Amino acid sequence: MGTSPLGSWSDGAAKRAIVEFVTSAAAEGSPDFVAPMDRVAVFDNDGTLWVEKPEPVQMPFVLAKLAQRLEADPSLAAERAYRAIAERDEAYFRALNDQDPDAVASMVEAIGSAWEGTPFGEFEAEAARYLESWRHERFGLPAIGLVYRPMLELFDYLRAYGWRLFVCSGGGRDFMRVICEDAWGLPRENVIGSAPEFAYRDGALVRRATPHGPVASGPESRSTSSPAPAGCRASRRATTTWTSRCCSPRGSPCSSCTTTTSASTRTTTARCGPERRPSGPAGRRSA
Question: Containing H/E element for 270?
Answer without folding.
Answer: strand 267-271
